[in-house]
Each structure stands twice: as structure tokens, then as C-alpha cells.
Design a protein that fits this description.
The structure holds 2 protein chains of 2 kinds.
Chain A: H1 18-26, H2 32-46, E1 55-56, H3 57-65, H4 73-82, E2 89-90, H5 92-101, H6 108-119, E3 127-128, H7 129-142, H8 149-163, E4 170-171, H9 173-182, H10 198-201, H11 205-208
Antiparallel strand pairs in A: 1-2, 3-4
Helix pairs in contact in A: 1-2, 4-6, 6-9, 7-8
Chain B: H1 7-11
Classes of the chains: A mainly alpha, B mainly alpha.
């Protein structure tokens, strides 16, 4: 059963009860204890700047880039995909849904799909050449790498020659799937090995657990 | 001349895409 619900104590602040946690576990690859451990992580992230139980973009940015300010195209895309409701904040449920895709045992199809949506900047259903160029320029700036425009064009040409199987100048879902299956390393960042033993990474959940073994 | 990298290989190096950093202390 459910003894005094830790999650209900700051009632409206977070407001997840046992049933919610069980539902989140049922909807994901995480068991209830793992959902609770992820809740510890979520709490840490969601109070790093604004203590309101929601992850704001600045908080995600602080965690990933170690700075809350500045522009990062990729961070923006990740945030947008996590923010299912598109209301500018990541709720715990959304956090679980997204991390579920990064689980080592999540279906590869889900990872392929998520990566496609990430790179389809304008959400047209295609990864277009212009988007790829924009992303390449962004990563070069981020990593303070300097490449001539000529070389950038060459890299993109080569990538499209490989990825754009039907030769229509843009990468559709089918092209993308075949491409990443040929280059599985491109999905490496779509898997977080930590998620396999998240309860070890966040053992403090044990003190807060609502669920007895 | 070295073969240029795949564009997506470059892109996937972004810190913004590496969620493993969420678990860093």
C-alpha cells in the first residue's frame, strides 16, 4: 500500500501520487522504483533555477551545457521534443516519456523517429539540406571548430549522397531509417546507459519511496 | 586529403544532444 505520500506533501507543487507513478511505470520501460529514482533527478533539475517543479529551458540548458544562457539550436530542439504540451516547460510525465526513448531497451524505431524529429528543424517531414547546413554551422560554432564553407558544403554533399537514397534533395523518414541503420553510431546519443540502473544513480529514492518491495 | 566526416556525425557531437550530462553530479 501507500504510506504517507512523499509526493503529496508539497501537494500542488509536484502532485504525483502512487497511482500516477504506477501509471507512468506502466506506460514506460521503467518500473515504479525507477520512476521514483527519475523523480529525484527531475526534482534536482526542476529546482536548479526556478523552484516550481517544472523544468524550464534554462534549467535543461544549465544541466546540459553548464550555463543557463546563450543560444543552442540543439538544446532548443531537445527541449521542444520533451515539451509535448508545447507550453514552455517540461513536466515530470513528459520527462519520463522522453527518457523512455533513451532507454537502452527502447525500440530502435523510436530512437530513429526521435532523432529524425530532432533534425527536422522546421518540422516539414523532411530533413532538408538547408537544415543540415544550419546544424553543421551551429556545431562548428559550439565546438569552436573552423572549417571553410567549401569543406562544409563538401561534407553536406557527401552526407546527402549517402543519405538521400531517392535523390530528391531531402531526407525523408525512409531515407533516414536506411541511413542510420547503415551508420548506427549516429544513434549513439539516443541511448543512455545510465537508465538501466537509475536506482543506483539516485539511491535517495529509497528514502522517499512509496512502494514497498 | 582526409575524407570529410558525415554531417550528422558532427551534429551529434553537440552537448545539447548529449543527455548523459543530465546524470552528472
Amino acid at each position: 500500500g501507500c504510506f504517507e505520500c512523499y509526493y503529496n506533501r508539497p501537494k500542488k507543487k509536484f502532485g504525483y501520487d502512487c497511482a500516477d507513478l504506477a501509471r507512468l511505470a506502466a506506460e514506460s520501460r521503467f518500473n515504479v522504483n525507477e520512476v521514483e529514482a527519475l523523480y529525484e533527478l527531475f526534482k534536482k533539475l526542476s529546482c536548479s533555477i526556478i523552484d516550481d517543479g517544472l523544468i524550464h529551458k534554462e534549467e535543461l540548458q544549465l544541466a546540459l551545457l553548464q550555463t543557463p544562457s546563450g543560444e543552442n539550436l540543439f538544446l532548443d530542439r531537445v527541449f521542444d521534443l520533451f515539451d509535448e504540451k508545447q507550453n514552455g516547460v517540461i513536466e515530470f510525465e513528459e520527462f519520463i516519456h522522453a527518457l523512455n526513448i533513451f532507454h537502452p531497451y527502447a525500440p530502435i524505431e523510436d530512437k530513429i523517429d526521435f532523432a529524425f524529429r530532432l533534425y527536422d528543424l522546421r518540422q516539414t517531414g523532411f530533413i532538408e539540406r538547408e537544415e543540415v547546413k544550419q546544424m553543421v554551422i551551429a556545431i562548428l560554432i559550439e565546438s569552436e571548430m573552423r572549417l571553410s564553407d567549401e569543406l562544409v558544403e563538401e561534407i553536406i554533399d557527401k552526407t546527402f549522397a549517402d543519405a538521400d537514397a531517392d535523390g530528391d534533395g531531402k531526407i525523408d523518414k525512409k531515407d533516414w531509417k536506411e541511413f542510420v541503420i547503415r551508420h548506427p553510431s549516429l544513434l549513439k546519443n539516443m541511448t543512455l546507459p545510465y537508465l538501466k540502473d537509475i536506482t543506483t544513480a539516485f539511491p535517495s529514492f529509497v528514502f522517499n519511496t512509496q512502494v514497498e518491495d | 586529403q582526409p575524407t570529410p566526416m558525415n554531417a550528422f556525425e558532427l551534429i551529434s557531437m553537440s552537448k545539447g544532444l548529449n543527455l548523459g550530462n543530465l546524470f552528472d553530479e
